[in-house]
Specification:
Elements lengths: L1 H17 L1 H8 L1 H14 L5 E7 L4 H11 L4 E5 L4 H9 L5 E5 L3 H6 L8 E4 L4 H21 L31 H31 L2 H6 L4 H30 L8 H25 L3 H19 L10 H7 L3 H15 L3 H30 L1
Parallel strand pairs: 1-2, 1-3
Antiparallel strand pairs: 3-4
Helix pairs in contact: 1-10, 3-8, 3-10, 8-10, 8-11, 8-12, 8-14, 10-11, 11-12, 11-14, 11-15, 12-14, 14-15
């Protein structure tokens, strides 16, 4: 039995090496994809375009404009003359944030009985830069108010300068580096993508090339055929995981707080579960193109329910229940938990058990469907 499986595995690798384009895709493109995505999502948003409508034109207003412009997140680029001009800048996307400094700001600062007011208008069609610009502008105005030594007063609201000595302690990501959250998810998606692709085209390629009948006349049991097709996908998925994890830790400096051995073992479990899905697709698809199309559709569905694009808690209740049977959702929780929190098996075993159950269930269905198809 082992010799027959080994010969089939060897045949798979020989076939894979003959297709140099697929080999290059499997070994190099996932790492390149990780680097490009991590660079794009991990970089901080800076130089958000800000327009300032200065109706005061005083020394105090100029100091405030300078304070806004020196912030790394903000770039004061426009000085509209009227309120209508600010609306045009927002409508055309030439500015993300508008700061309206009313007339009499300098006089209000000099009078302890008057409260200066400043208006912030943001274009929230893209919420991320808008929220960052609003936060940076609020902090800058609060610091400017404090520097003017008007204790207990504020240019925007009373809650920006708090009399409470508030001390925060941030766990797992003290610098709020977005890469620590996004890059592990991208590693998980790459492993998911490569494993599912390799596993799904195995039998579809044999059927398309007309060599499936030759496998059928060989002394191979159905289970041996499935194992022989699954082992190459398992090895390729494991190699890609080690490569992408090395890039994640060494290049992008994402911390590895937990056990590498535990993460590798749970990754193998995730790969095995996805191989079951791949074998099921391979048993249904008649050509490699059909298999890749099925993988694409399944990936879109799994990304929706996994928390990769949208938090699972933001989904409606029935969809949250469906996400519990998606192995990709559990693996994202595992890889983030091990790398960022140092979580152990005592905290992650429910997710591991869910992946194991779904893998066994889908693999059983795939093998039974494959037996009916081949017979």
């Amino acid at each position: 039995m082992l010799r027959r499986i080994w010969n089939l595995v060897l045949k798979e690798f020989i076939q894979l090496l003959r297709d140099w384009l697929m080999t290059a895709f499997i070994l190099t493109l996932p790492v390149l994809q990780l680097i490009l995505l991590a660079q794009a999502t991990g970089s901080r948003i800076s130089d958000v375009r800000v327009a300032v409508l200065d109706l005061d034109r005083s020394s105090a207003s100029r100091q405030l404009v300078n304070a806004l412009d020196v912030r790394r997140e903000l770039d004061v680029c426009c000085f509209p003359a009227t309120l209508a001009d600010t609306h045009r800048l927002l409508d055309q996307g030439e500015a993300t944030l508008v700061v309206v400094i009313p007339a009499g700001l300098d006089a209000d600062l000099s009078d302890a009985t008057r409260t200066p007011r400043i208006q912030l208008v943001a274009d929230a069609s893209n919420t991320v830069p808008a929220s960052i610009a609003m936060s940076a502008a609020r902090e800058t105005i609060a610091e400017f108010a404090e520097e003017t030594r008007f204790r207990g007063r504020n240019l925007v609201s009373q809650d920006l300068v708090s009399p409470v000595d508030l001390r925060a302690n941030v766990h797992f990501n003290p610098t709020f580096n977005v890469k620590f959250f996004t890059v592990p998810a991208q590693v998980g998606f790459i492993i998911y993508q490569v494993t599912l692709t390799v596993a799904s085209i195995g039998l579809a390629r044999e059927r398309e090339l007309g060599t499936l009948e030759q496998l059928m006349v060989m002394p191979l049991r159905r289970l041996e055929l499935v194992i022989g097709k699954a082992i190459p996908a398992l090895l390729i998925g494991a190699i890609n995981f080690l490569l992408t994890l090395a890039v994640t830790v060494l290049v992008f400096q994402v911390p590895m707080q937990g056990s590498l051995l535990l993460l590798f073992g749970l990754t193998l479990l995730f790969i095995v579960a996805e191989i079951g899905y791949g074998i099921f697709i391979s048993s249904v698809a008649r050509t490699q193109q059909q298999a890749i199309l099925f993988v694409f559709v399944l990936a879109m569905v799994d990304m929706t329910f996994s928390g990769y694009l949208v938090r699972v808690k933001n989904l409606p209740g029935p969809l949250q229940a469906i996400s519990q049977i998606v192995p990709f959702h559990h693996y994202l929780t595992i890889i983030r938990g091990v790398m960022l929190k140092g979580a152990g098996l005592d905290a992650l075993w429910p997710h591991a058990a869910a992946m194991l159950l779904m893998g066994l269930f889908v693999t059983t269905i795939a093998v039974r469907n494959l037996s009916r198809t081949l017979d």
